[in-house]
Design brief:
- This protein is mainly alpha-helical and about 400 residues long.
- About 55% of the residues lie in helices and about 5% in strands.
- A 3-stranded antiparallel sheet has the order 1-3-2.
- The longest helix has about 40 residues.
Amino acid sequence: MTTPAPHTPVNFLKAGGMGGFSAKCIQLLAECGYHPDDFGNHAYVQDRLKQARQKRKEYLEQCKQDGVRPSPNGPDPHTAFLARCQSGHLTQDALMRGKGSRGDCCANHSPPGSDTRGYHTDAAPCMPMATYGPTGQKSIGSDHWAVGRNESAQHAGTTPASSGLSSGSPVSSTQLGAMSQENTAIVTPNPPRSSHPTHDAALKSAKWDKNKQAQAAQRKGGIALRKQARSAALVEDAAAAEAGEAQGAAGDSAAFDGNTAAECIEAFRSAAMEKMQQDAVTNYGENYESARDEAQAAKAQADQALADAEAARPKADIEQARRDAVSSDPPDWDAYRAANAELGERRGLERNAARADQEVRNVDCLHAQARSLAGQPPPPPNESFTAPSPLNLPGFTGQIP
């Protein structure tokens, strides 16, 4: 059982809520195994993946009860795919804040250098990126791993989109888009359902022992097979979209269009980044008190959940029970697993409390950034204001960590 994260002021946002993909893009995405509803902000995609993992878990439990062997593509190919994914940022998160400060909006870059005012990791545009193998082990060889390798190369300025960049270099909005599209091309290869050269090169250059090499190759092959399984059904749905029948098809007036899947995703990313900065002014500037009160309530809820759990059974007692289970003769592995699961749950509560505490600070920092973006005097006081209309925002520029 996983511990639910406390609610934060960040709202779920999916691509369809911003105008949707064109019928052509729906077809292109389907050929690569993606559905239009797979795209949204980090909070939305995380929730979509969580639901898929729950469905996959229920399917496996039902198969066990029925005494049948589960399919790697059950209960359906797309759910099985999402259950093995992480929510991958389309704009590399590390470029948007100070080094080592993930989730900390107070570390956003401000002029006169790079400008990421209004950035929030949970509000940033994301997509599912295949990570977990059938056994849920490490991600080596996966799509998400390959994108991570390419991002490291971008930091060194050794890819076409990042040529000339190095640690501390500013990254223009144009470069952010090119680097993002370079990464999404890895998970949407053309021709569809094939392997991207960057992914293949990363696998070839990795210095692994033979077991890890085999594991990586197996994972990459499994991802390819699952892509083929889910894309077949999605392509059929996309054909209906082209005829104007499928849910989510936005027709010629769609917000996001392109000639490749990566171009379609870039159209969404660019619009979503612009909307995030606009929403920051609205949510943390014009509606500051509401955002503050919501964050403080979430913190109180997370703190209380942790305190209640600690009162029911101190964490030190759980750790001792785990040690006792291992040191008994013979070891009591059932007791060990139970204590380990309970300890994982407690650590989840601790993480929730820490995130909720950070979110309270984020709200105040984003409020100051919203005031700056809207040309308002800096706080104090921290209070709502009315932004000028029209509001001309600068957009985002990043920095290589």
